[in-house]
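Researcher: Re-running this chain for the archive, since the previous output was lost when a drive failed. Same request as before.
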Amino acid sequence: MNDILSEKEYQHFIMDRLEKDNGYVIRKATDYDRLFAVDRGMLFQFLNSTQPDEMAALRKIYKDDLEDTIVSFINAEETKARGSLLDVLKHGIEISNLKLELMYTKPATDFNKDLLAKYEKNIFSVMEEVWASDKERIDLVIFLNGLAIMSFELKCNAAGQSYEDAIFQYRTERNPKTRLFLFKAGVLVNFAMDLKEVYMTTKLTGQNTFFLPFNIGNGKGVNAGKGNPTFKDHYSVSYMWEDILTKDTMLDLISKFMFIETKEKVDELTGKAKKTENIIFPRYHQLDVIRKVLADVRENRTAQNYLIQHSAGSGKTNSIAWLAHRLTSLHDVDNKIIFDNIVIVTDRVVVDRQLQKAVMGLEHKAGLIRVMDDKCNSADLANALKGNTKIIATTIQKFPYIVDSVKNLKKKNFAVIIDEAHSSTAGKDMAAVTKSLGAGDEVSKDVEDMISKEITRNGKQSNVSMFAFTATPKSTTLQLFGRLNTKGQREAFHIYSMKQAIEEGFILDVLANYTTYNTFYQINKEIEEDPRCKTSDAKRQIARFVELHDTNIAQRIEVIVEHFRQSVMTELGGMAKAMVVTASRQAAVKYRQALEDYINKKGYTDIHALVAFSGKVKFPDDDTEYSEPSMNGFPEDRLTQEFDKDDYNVLLVANKYQTGFDQPKLCAMYVLKKLKGVSAVQTLSRLNRICPPFEKHTFVLDFVNTYDDIKAAFAPYYTTTLLSNSVTPTAIYDLEAKIDAYTVLDPDDIEKANELLYKEKITPKDKQKLTFYFNKTKNMIERYEPIKQTEIVALMRHFVRFYEFLLQVSCFEDIDLHKKYNFITYLLSYINIKHPGGGYDLDGKIKATNFVQKRAEEHVKPDLVAQPVVKLATAESFSLTPAKEERLSQIIAEINSRTGKSYDNDVAVKAMLQIKDIMMKSERLKVSAKNNSEKDFEFSYFDNIDDALIAGLDQNQDFFSLLLSNDEIKREVLGIFAEEIYASLRRS
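Model: Regenerated structure tokens:
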């Protein structure tokens, strides 16, 4: 028998805390009016104390019928088609031309003493064992000013029950038509709570009721996951009565967070739009991030930037809408408004419609938000920034066009909320944002002064705070927006991790059910001569030849179609869909054709595919011009809508819909393209959406990538992402020195060009002079061999990119360097390096045979371990390795060895890299490099190779044994690293 804690004792403990700590009124269940879900005593106590004049006037009209009239009128407003309890609470009721407020929200400032006094008069009360009907008894019901707003089903783990039993109770024993639970008119939210966890729902729908976790999360950083922490002297769910159920938080939730979301879906049978409604209640991490950001901004005003690392499935759209809305009225400690405008920036071409609806759902005021749609140009955006519209939503692509047109904005403060901060934030677009909003200084005649101010405008602006949301922050994003932690690493201001989202069931783990395939084939020459050509060029042509080979495509399509029909199609009640990720537009066309041919040959009538790619495609032996609309039979803008229908279940894509595509019915992905880093995470994450009420499973068949490579791509973003190094001016000076070593830049030309560039008006004669300076430098570059020209241009491009980033993340200022940056930026547009002799055309000169698609590995249970630390690229990593040439026969032999019978794909490359790492750690080689020429160093290098091979033998036994037994192959394969290792060891 349980004598630790009973459910009843737990119930009384919570009520006691609500009464003593939060000022709740304890009411008897007999005070509840089940017909109207109201506590009349508390309702009229509130109305009489806060609005005595209105109540007196109404009493003269309705006399003894006043209470019944008001209760019935409120009920009618709550239960009518467009009515709701939420609307009644937020906007009150109007009866006989008199306005009655049913809730008072906290004023933005403390200037209005009357409103503050009324806010304090809101009454919160609680009842236990409430009979909602003759068959339904509820553990706890919470009321605001007499109106029922929350229900609780409590379970005690010590008594052998949990929140899951409470959820089962709601689903099976609570009637959604009972007045207390009636959607929109009954309670706003229902909580299933035990001693450890909390779950909630705003809409009961019987067995299909969908509950969301409302937990803090357990652990921090790499250890963060689902659930709640364990405390010595508190229950794990004590935050509910210590924070969430406090009067301030409750009124904040109702007035500033909760809203009714309306979604439209076209009925496939009638063709008419069908509306579905949901009451949105924030999840804990959403409430937490908004409150913490607002508190920090209230204290620091526009001094800081904020990085929000929230996983897919975090409800980012609503979080952005809540943040934008709250920032519009945020006052500092001195009761002064902080931001004049809130700018929501997205990297999508069209601003997210869902985001617009979420913002408007919170507030109905006309003119609150203006969306820069396709019809708006940069001038419209500039005017909006100058105007009084509080929230402006736009695409980042519009910012560069207004850098020079927006003036006098220093007097205004801006909050810039960036949706998906992983992209478009480290280049010229992002620089344009800060330059635009920080513009407005007086124009100076002094060129050096102007440059200094331009540098300042590129960096953090004193009147602009940026709030960047992303699930996958790159190192540059962390440097731009992250905060330093106690260990000197940069991290996000707030984190809701991928690991926690998976554990809480908001997204699926796409690394489960991951199967890799190897493609084997034989390459042969079709010609007798053995021409020399660039390794990279030849490999690229061969890879493309194999990728588009009809036999290869046909074999892969057979695997794809049969897997989809046997393992995927029956998922989600037969509504499951798949995406095929191809490597190019040509591949998308050919795979779609092959799929149609295969299903027609097999007589399958249950697979129908769409294709997605930009532009038009033509093949050398085909006069037909292929495009997405012509192949699908409808315009591009209808694709997502059509693919959502039951008519289609496969989508073949080429660089489209790999990001930002939200289709919950997508269950399988077939990968025919090399994926790396953030791109891999974003592409595969198209699968991770849950699809209630179904228990969705995901499947990935990957013909190109290894499972280890994909795990490595996900590892930095699984929990928290930390930046371990920082960008420094030293790196940019190193790049400058490398460029200067080529002596192609004339300091006098740079000086004169900048004087012209910063003139108020550049004349045609000035343009001729500028052209002369740039062409002169171009001619100097072209004196070098093509390979050296490529090195110079690559260094210059890296210099420009690195310098632009440095300006944004630091207070760095060097006027002479900025002049050089200006000059190189314009110079690069003049340069077009030719590559004589390297472009050998392999068309018709090779053939591929013996194609085999072989299943390699199947991974059912993922074993992903977080690797949270990332690093910024440095100038050192920008060095360019000269292209090497090999005979065509040698290139083909290498490819065949990598994809043939002896070794797994890429084993040769990985083995060589392992050897390189071992050699780099050799003290003997380090001494040799410091004291010998490169040629003499090679003797030591090759003497030490066998030691390195033996040291790594257990990692790659087969391949290393081959090298140990064959000196010729060993020198040929490993000689390519000698120069690089020598240079690195001399510098160390």
